[in-house]
Amino acid sequence: MNALLNRYIKIIDRYIIGKYLGTFFFTMVLIIVISVVFDISEHMDNFLRNNTTIYDIAFKYYAGFIPFYINLLSPLINFLAVIYFTAKMANQTEIVPILSGKASFNRFLRPYFVAASIIFVLSFFANVYLIPFTNKLKIDFENTHGFNGDASKNDVHLQLDKNTYAYANTYDPNTHTAYQFVLEKMDGDLMREKIVANMAVYDSVKNVWSIKNYSVRYINGLRETLKVNISNKDTVLDLKPSDFVVNNAYPAMSLRELNKRIDKEKIRGAGDLKDMQYEKYRRFVYPLSSFVLMLIGVSISSRKVRGGIGLPLGIGLFLCFAYIVVDKFALVFAIKGSLSPIAAVFIPNGLFGLLGLYLLAKAPK
Question: What residues does 168 pair with on adjacent strands?
């Protein structure tokens, strides 16, 4: 193994990989520490008001907060780290001897791709396996301690199965109660039964809905039968309290659970299908940004310029903001518009990948 590494990974490769990863992880730790300090000051009232223990804050909230922001910021920190240490190498005339020693620019890029591959593997593993678990810790803590306020939906229409539809005017997440509840049973395009209730309360022990003060209408062609003021009825429905809540938990679902929710949403049509599909595709595509932004970073910072590393860093910050804007616009067009979610997740990396190839062609060789 060592012989193989020594054959393909030379001294200059180790030097660049060390600079790359060292700058990346140092910058990441610095930014996360600053983020945690600001977040503590912002949410101190929530912690004190709920008498939260140090254990819960550290091992539930920040055990989810830190991985979430590491994953969120890693492409941009990767980008700035590449620009910083490459521009510093160029300013200290370290790149010129490498390219002058019969090493092609593609050979010069090899250690960059090795380091970017390490970051890609870590990011891919985190997105697919780790982040959903840690996000669940963070979201559960936030919901329990009132970070998100009232997140209930109004006027909810859901298709529970092929022949059953449910509607609720309002929902109280504290008592798990749906008000002005309607349950319709269909036979093709014909309604066979309609239940109208003042409220439906979810029993989390029995996993049933208790429908209170309801009336039921049976329909058989032109014949109808109406029963009113029925006091109580327990029924099992493919309906959970989470279906009545504005769902911020898709990032906290495992891939298997997310696929099941997508299949169910295709039947129900509650309007969250694109959100879930975007979250699923993003987990696989987002890590590719480590290669795209690395390529742009090397291309714009490998030339020695007057003024040192300030100009490349300035360009890098501008491109960081541009990447974020394109990513958010793609998300909005996917969820609110007609853009396909899988196309939306590829747009930022696709556009900036083309930019990276153009800049690479123009880079000094």
Answer: 156, 181
* Under 8 Å between Cβ of 199 and 176: no
Cα 58 versus chain centre, distance: 22
The residue-averaged pLDDT of 351-358 equals 92
Q: DSSP E strands: which ranges in the chain?
A: 156-159, 164-172, 177-187, 190-203, 208-220, 223-235
Tell me the whole-structure pTM to 2 decimals.
0.78
Query: If you count DSSP H runs as helices and E runs as strands, how many of each does the chain have, helices first?
Result: 12, 6
Distance CA 199, CA 178 (A): 5
Rounded CA separation 232/213 (Å): 6
Q: Render 288-317 in DSSP notation, one character per residue.
A: GHHHHHHHHHHHHHSS--TTTTHHHHHHHH
Question: Please, which residues have CB within 8 angstroms of residue 190's CB and are 6 or more apart in sequence?
Answer: 219
What span, in angstroms and rounded, lies between the C-alpha atoms of 167 and 162? Answer: 15
Q: Confirm if 210 and 232 have CB atoms less than 8 A apart.
A: yes
Sheet containing 223-235, strands listed edge to edge, beginning at the edge strand earlier in sequence: 156-159, 164-172, 177-187, 190-203, 208-220, 223-235
* Residues near 260 by beta carbon (within 8 Å), at least 6 away in sequence: none
Interval 208-237: pLDDT, tens: 888 888 888 888 877 888 777 777 777 877
